[in-house]
């Protein structure tokens, strides 16, 4: 029987999230309806698809239709997430993936889209090889819009308590400097202590704001559940001087969403202490990877080599995120 594509409806929310959590070979927290529920805009322009084989879900495409009232409507997977892309079951092979891509393109045309954009997730999140959709998109004419490189630490090979042995010499020395200075890193729920520090960092370094306000992030935590989000804070003499917010992407990987520190405490190397704590946490939790986030700018065209070197000092290496696009024929 042919695969059927079904537009998402809220009545499928539980089935969608169960598929991501229990059957998908490349699904993550950022593919779930729980995650998308934290932003009301996702309900207004949702254009997601479920793919079924004999009523059984075998794939998903989280997506939004942008500019639906204009001449340049875009079906985007996904504009309000770090990534989207096709989420598939273990049994889905190349032929089925090609069929799903064709169904998605037909749906985009039906909705009046003039362009389709797909931002793929990182391969470190995959439980097994899942590149069929990359190939299928290329075969159907998609081209690369951007290649962004992040850095992930392979924590699956680290024995808990032995993370320092996997760092380079400079990084080890900086972690030990923080420890000698009395910097203490612990799990916390005090997001109100972290957020002003984050906002100041982004304002001073990039004239930017966090993707989420403190209130918006509180809503995200409420939607995805407290176990899916972690906060660690570094303190010195009772004062918070650094911290990081981490998302539990899936059973394989943790993703560092935000890192911040106080400018007047950099000599204490608190970020080094925070990342050492996170590497140990990932190793102890059985996670294969700790993703330290993006180190490029301008859609990947400008590498921040200093930031790459800093993250690579913890044993991290590059993970690629590609964004692909296709202009649809009129």
TrEMBL record:
<dbReference type="InterPro" id="IPR050644">
    <property type="entry name" value="PG_Glycine_Bridge_Synth"/>
</dbReference>
<keyword id="KW-0961">Cell wall biogenesis/degradation</keyword>
<protein>
    <recommendedName>
        <fullName>BioF2-like acetyltransferase domain-containing protein</fullName>
    </recommendedName>
</protein>
<dbReference type="Pfam" id="PF13480">
    <property type="entry name" value="Acetyltransf_6"/>
</dbReference>
<keyword id="KW-0133">Cell shape</keyword>
<dbReference type="GO" id="GO:0016755">
    <property type="term" value="F:aminoacyltransferase activity"/>
</dbReference>
<keyword id="KW-0573">Peptidoglycan synthesis</keyword>
<keyword id="KW-0012">Acyltransferase</keyword>
<dbReference type="GO" id="GO:0008360">
    <property type="term" value="P:regulation of cell shape"/>
</dbReference>
<dbReference type="InterPro" id="IPR003447">
    <property type="entry name" value="FEMABX"/>
</dbReference>
<dbReference type="InterPro" id="IPR038740">
    <property type="entry name" value="BioF2-like_GNAT_dom"/>
</dbReference>
<dbReference type="GO" id="GO:0009252">
    <property type="term" value="P:peptidoglycan biosynthetic process"/>
</dbReference>
<feature type="domain" description="BioF2-like acetyltransferase">
    <location>
        <begin position="170"/>
        <end position="297"/>
    </location>
</feature>
<keyword id="KW-0808">Transferase</keyword>
<comment type="similarity">
    <text>Belongs to the FemABX family.</text>
</comment>
<dbReference type="GO" id="GO:0071555">
    <property type="term" value="P:cell wall organization"/>
</dbReference>
<dbReference type="InterPro" id="IPR016181">
    <property type="entry name" value="Acyl_CoA_acyltransferase"/>
</dbReference>
């Amino acid at each position: 029987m042919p695969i059927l594509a079904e537009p998402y409806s809220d009545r499928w929310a539980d089935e969608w999230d169960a598929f991501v959590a229990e059957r998908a070979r490349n699904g993550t927290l950022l593919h779930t309806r729980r995650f998308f529920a934290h932003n009301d805009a996702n309900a207004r322009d949702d254009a997601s698809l479920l793919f079924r084989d004999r009523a059984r879900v075998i794939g998903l495409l989280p997506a939004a239709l942008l500019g639906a009232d204009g001449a340049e409507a875009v079906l985007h997977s996904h504009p309000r997430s770090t990534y989207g892309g096709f989420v598939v079951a273990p049994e889905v092979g190349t032929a089925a993936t090609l069929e799903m891509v064709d169904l998605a393109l037909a749906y985009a045309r039906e909705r009046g889209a003039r362009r389709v954009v797909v931002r793929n997730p990182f391969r470190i999140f995959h439980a097994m090889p899942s590149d069929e959709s990359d190939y299928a998109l290329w075969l159907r004419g998609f081209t690369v819009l951007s290649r962004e490189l992040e850095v992930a630490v392979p924590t699956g090979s680290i024995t808990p308590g032995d993370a320092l042995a996997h760092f380079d010499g400079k990084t080890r020395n900086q972690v030990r400097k923080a420890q000698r200075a009395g910097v203490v890193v612990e799990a916390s729920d005090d997001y109100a202590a972290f957020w002003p520090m984050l906002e100041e960092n982004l304002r001073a370094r990039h004239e930017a704001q966090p993707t989420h306000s403190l209130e918006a992030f509180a809503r995200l935590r409420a939607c995805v559940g407290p176990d899916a989000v972690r906060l660690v804070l570094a303190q010195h003499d009772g004062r918070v001087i650094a911290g990081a917010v981490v998302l539990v992407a899936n059973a394989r990987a943790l993703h560092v969403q935000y890192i911040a520190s106080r400018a007047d405490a950099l000599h204490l190397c608190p970020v080094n202490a925070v990342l050492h704590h996170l590497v140990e946490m990932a190793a102890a939790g059985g996670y294969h990877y700790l993703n330290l986030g993006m180190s490029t700018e301008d859609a990947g065209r400008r590498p921040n080599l200093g930031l790459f070197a800093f993250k690579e000092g913890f044993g991290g290496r590059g993970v690629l995120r590609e964004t692909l696009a296709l202009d649809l024929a009129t």
